[in-house]
From TrEMBL:
Pfam families: UDPGT. InterPro entries: Glycosyltransferase_28, UDP_glucos_trans. GO terms for molecular function: UDP-glycosyltransferase activity. This is Glycosyltransferase family 1 protein. GO terms for biological process: antibiotic biosynthetic process. CDD domains: GT1_Gtf-like.
Amino acid sequence: MHALFVTLPLYSHLRGFQALARAWTDRGHQASFLVLPGGPPMPGFDALTLPGPSVAPPPGNVLALARHGARQTERLCRDGLPMARSLGVDVVLGDQMEPASGLIARALGVPLASVACALPMDPEPGVPLPFLSWPYDPSARGLKRQRAAGAVAGLLMAPQDRVVARISREWGLGDLRSLADCLSPRLTLAQMIPGFDYPRPAGGWRIAELGPFAPPDPAQGFPPDIRPDPGRPLVYVSLGTIMGRRAGVLARIAAACRECGAQVLVSHGGCLDGAQAAAIPADWVRAFVPQRAVLARADLCVTHAGLNTVLECLGAGVPMLALPLAYDQPGVAARIRHHGLGSVLGPLQRGRRPVAQAVAALLADPGPRARLRPFAALAATAPGGAGAVPLVEALVAGSR
């Protein structure tokens, strides 16, 4: 079988899709990527690059990003469909955050498997939109608030929704009006540990929670030049590439952790220069570390609540102090709070004192680590990207 992979040019999404494509080709199938110009190389895979120049996302507000996303969707559809049609693919694996994948699959007349590299976007009563920090609330009040949030999101996403509606009319695909309408009605492949998401009694049947798509690298051991004192707690701090460049925030977190008597390892993701890194009062500051190996030794992780890091914390059974900022991070942090797996600090709570109080409380409380044990056990048996292959094969077989 020949699968077309369509995703966004974001590192975490590309990494997840490459893991899925590798599992697909390991089974003897063929994989092709439809990519925007200017993206990173896709070694080992057939990559169809759209014509024209690359266009970087604007450094503006949400509306500017929404307009950029709309142009990207239209470009993928207009230029990508003829390229995809020439391949004769059997199935499309499409990023949930890019509606072009659903439009192209429908235009080709092939089944679609939606891929959730972030929190699943499948609509569900009581489950707020992924970028909201709200709790799960299926009550009448919660559903009313959910509808109001959906209306606001619809206004923000109006440029992309107009593209979806226009192309669906032109291509004769029916009454598709939004990103949600472009999701697969039959299968979502999700990078989730079972039980971490909010309950989904209505539509959860189509979501396959596979755990991290990429398998762990056994060659990546704990850094030999980092030698923690086993008699003191070790706190690992990683805020991703959005907050990783905020040296002042990292410095406050490191100082707060050391106030609690903890050893601190900071990973800034290559966002700081040497002078900025040297000014952080941590025991160790690195651009990158083998995260899974570090978490296996850590007592606490201070994280931006990016899903990949949180999934690795679940697998390692490490409590979290979440400092969410953007994208689906508030929603991921809300699930950490929902299950009692750590604490969450909002944007106005990130001074030295509140961070120190939260770190001290988590290091002294055995509850989060105990509640993490079932998640760690599930993560150990999660099939990852390899588990997606038989599901996609069955999807194609059932569509013939």
